[in-house]
Amino acid sequence: MEPIQWSRWMSVGNDSLDEDHRVLIAIVNRLYDEAGRQDPALIEAILDELIAYTRHHFAEEEAQMLRLNYPTFAAHKALHDRLTQQVEAYRADFRANGGGISGEEVFLFCSDWLGKHILREDTRFGEYAGSEATLAMTGTQVVTE
């Protein structure tokens, strides 16, 4: 188990979204630290922060997708909704069971999901957004037959 390391491969070509991703990675990585894996109060605080920041980030990303008419918006939003529900379920389980889940378990889930989501889904949106912006700036229209 290693902390998540930001790499250029994670960039979606949008400074705002990239910065949000860096913040999310930093929050998740706090669960990697010894205290973040063992201290129930800290785990709960990290979960609260992760949920709040995730909601903020997803709202921003989804607004950009809507503005650009992203063709797979509904599927991408569904992925966001599932992650939010899963992390909220972790937090609810954590509260109900007095810390019955470990920070390590939450870290592993979130780091796996976040890495895959950024590398697969968000970079796809970044490519689309980049091509849409390029087309808009040059006035070029895509012609379909």
Compute the average pLDDT: 84
Number of helices: 5
* Rg, Cα atoms, Å: 17 Å
Morphology call = elongated
Uncertain segments are 140-145
Distance between the terminal alpha carbons, to the nearest Å?
Answer: 50 Å
Largest sheet: none
Total strands: 0
Q: What structural category do the secondary elements indicate?
A: mainly alpha
Give the ordered list of helices and strands.
HHHHH
Percent helix, as a range, is over 70%
Instruction: Classify the beta-strand content into a percent band.
Output: under 5%
Keywords: Iron, Metal-binding, Oxygen transport, Transport
Pfam families: Hemerythrin (PF01814)
Organism: Azospirillum endophyticum
Family: Belongs to the hemerythrin family.
Would you mind describing this structure in some detail?
This is Hemerythrin family protein. Belongs to the hemerythrin family. It comes from Azospirillum endophyticum. Residues 13-125 form the Hemerythrin-like domain. InterPro entries: Haemerythrin_Fe_BS (IPR016131), Hemerythrin (IPR050669), Hemerythrin-like (IPR012312), Hemerythrin-like_sf (IPR035938), Hemerythrin_metal-bd (IPR012827). By secondary structure, the chain is mostly helical. The protein has 5 helices and no strands. The protein has helices at residues 15-29, 34-38, 40-67, 73-96, 103-138. Helix 1 (15-29) packs antiparallel against helix 3 (40-67) and helix 1 (15-29) runs antiparallel to helix 5. The longest helix is centred in the C-terminal third of the chain and has 36 residues, at 103-138. It is elongated and about 50 Å long. The termini are far apart.
